[in-house]
Amino acid sequence: MLLRIDRDHNRFKEIVKGRIKRDFRKYITREELVGRRGDRLVSIPVPQIELPRFRHGKNQAQGVGQGSGKEGDPADGAQGEGVGTAGDQPGRHMLEVEISYDELAQILGEELELPDIRPKGSKHTHQTKDRYTGIRATGPESLRHVKRTYKKALKRQIASGTYDPDNPIIIPIKEDKLYRSWKPSREPRANAAVFYLMDVSGSMGDEQKEIVRIESFWIDTWLRYQYRDVEFRYIVHDAVAHEVDRQTFFHLKESGGTKISSAYDLLGKILGEEYPAVDWNLYVFQFSDGDNWGSGDTERCLELLDEEFLPVVNLFAYGQVESPYGSGQFLKDVGSRFGESENLILSEIQDKDKVYDSIKEFLGKGR
What we know:
The chain is of the alpha/beta class. The chain has helices at about 5-20, 25, 30-35, 100-110, 145-160, 205-225, 245-250, 260-275, 295-310, 330-340, 355-365; strands spanning about 40-45, 95-100, 125-135, 180-190, 190-200, 230-235, 240-245, 280-290, 315-320, 345-350. It has three domains: about 5-50 and about 95-110, no CATH class; about 125-185, no CATH class; about 190-365, von Willebrand factor, type A domain (Rossmann fold, 3-Layer(aba) Sandwich), CATH 3.40.50.410.
């Protein structure tokens, strides 16, 4: 039976979820959520709900509407026309609420109507897990089954006539003790590897990287909810590609020209050496402003997509972030060649308000 405080806490959590759902499109574009992330929880600011109440003041004049004055005159002590002074009333406060990533992912899935991901292939890595499936007479004290031991001791004392209802003390002996037993079982564990590729050339500024940062936060949240184990790898490129950590990925200063094939070559090398497609569910999320160095490099990228990436990945998602300096041509070239591919998703992200739609485009097929 739940205690009242547990019921109140569960009810409060439902209220918080309802508030987040109601304003979800607003929350999904707020970068500060990325800064509030922890290992298991993320802190979300929600408006504090206060019940209205009466405040009693001094009633120096008896009755209603007593005294001189005309409509529109300021009351005693009230500020007239002009610039106001500092107030003494409390403002509207925000309440920091911690919510788990699983709960946040559930809200994301419900609001965007995302289907569960169907891991590809039948071969996955396996893990060994101990399952407690029975009872035995020997074992470590840490696994002693207290309830069954007590019942067995009680039956023994009643049968032997040593049980005293007026002094109901049950003392188990060695023969009464029962322990949980286990056996190892192998169960499939779906693995996923997620690759983020980002153009950090001179045309990708802070605003564009902020969009990538927000969108990747929600993509991460959904994929962690769908898979037991997820590995994340980060590749940045201008004219040359490098693998970096997450912090560097989002804070590297932009400079240089653009050669997208350098990132594709590095991605192909990592996939070939570390992630066989039969064992891994592979996701690639690429972000760029669509500017590339020459048609020859774009042709090389299309060749790699066709021969190395699209045949093996669950999803290749290309998000083109609008930039005042980017031509946007790369999305057109990829779309004209592979527009019908089921595991290729293209999305144009003009600004932060389009992140909501872009996430739905990327994850809406459940691949």
